Amino acid sequence: MLANPKRTKDEIVQWIRSYFESNGHGCDAVVGISGGKDSSVVAALCVEALGKERVVGVMMPNGEQPDLDDSKQLIEFLGIRYAYTDISKAVSAVSDQVALNMNVSDQTRINLPPRIRMATLYAISQSLPHGGRVANTCNRSEDYVGYSTKFGDSAGDFSPLANLMVHEVIQIGYELLLPINLISKTPSDGLCGKTDEDNLGFTYAHLDAYIMYGTSGIEEIDKKIASMHDHNLHKLNPMPAYGTTIF
Ligand SMILES: Nc1ncnc2c1ncn2[C@@H]1O[C@H](COP(=O)(O)OP(=O)(O)OC[C@H]2O[C@@H]([n+]3cccc(C(=O)O)c3)[C@H](O)[C@@H]2O)[C@@H](O)[C@H]1O
Ligand SMILES: Nc1ncnc2c1ncn2[C@@H]1O[C@H](COP(=O)(O)OP(=O)(O)OP(=O)(O)O)[C@@H](O)[C@H]1O
């Protein structure tokens, strides 16, 4: 629990400002807007840091998206510029070509859309007149167990929420006065139709308790979290490389 959400919010806003001063002077922040709390909070933080003129929200439905109105609501609420790109043709083009060679696995079906979204965000970012920097919207809880697609939604140029657990992101959302329906929405990856908590097999409350206190209070869940953490650390660590790298 953040002791002082306003202070943390102000610190992140300042951090985003400094990031852009040294890494993207004059360019725009590009945020994929799913209509969930993470992208809503990231977009709002960028607006506070850079001004609404320098934030571009990108809606990327994979065909029909039942909660598209939530993305539109956020974009309207913040008054930011936006782009709309239906990724379904790109997703099926890649998957159809793979299918000519082998069976397309469920793992591929789940992770291809976030990777196409990543490519889309960079395509938009690099086409902006003043250039852009792509926001990563992952939070600490998701990162802890690797609940993201490697080089998909785990990618980005800067990551404002990487050190905030889910319940802390919600606190920041309230601090930013974002619409309650977006902040309190049940998290889902929008990929397989299940909620995050169904997929994970534990709640974010369990996960955040484990991160804070070393236990969720349930031994079986603790083992699962520890195992996911170990198995997915490769998503956060730099890519192993042969030899000694000199930069
Ligand atoms: N030990 C290791 N060292 C280095 N690399 C390793 C590795 N093990 C796998 N890999 C590589 O990583 C790949 C697997 O990683 P990845 O492609 O990410 O796939 P994976 O971890 O299997 O799946 C991603 C999970 O994240 C969930 N997700 C995705 C996107 C957004 C959200 C959300 O709600 O925010 C959730 C999704 O539902 C799914 O459960 C393997 O194919 C392999 O290339
Ligand atoms: N349909 C979409 N349109 C635009 N961006 C998307 C879309 N789906 C996912 N994204 C981007 O990928 C990130 C991860 O999305 P995901 O749906 O997996 O949920 P999440 O981690 O719970 O995030 P959020 O709370 O923002 O929904 C989002 O924060 C957003 O930036």
UniProtKB/TrEMBL annotation:
It catalyses: deamido-NAD(+) + NH4(+) + ATP = AMP + diphosphate + NAD(+) + H(+). GO terms for cellular component: cytoplasm. The keyword NAD applies. One of its GO terms (biological process) is NAD+ biosynthetic process. It holds the Pfam family NAD_synthase. The keyword Ligase applies. One of its GO terms (molecular function) is NAD+ synthase (glutamine-hydrolyzing) activity. This is NH(3)-dependent NAD(+) synthetase. The gene is nadE.
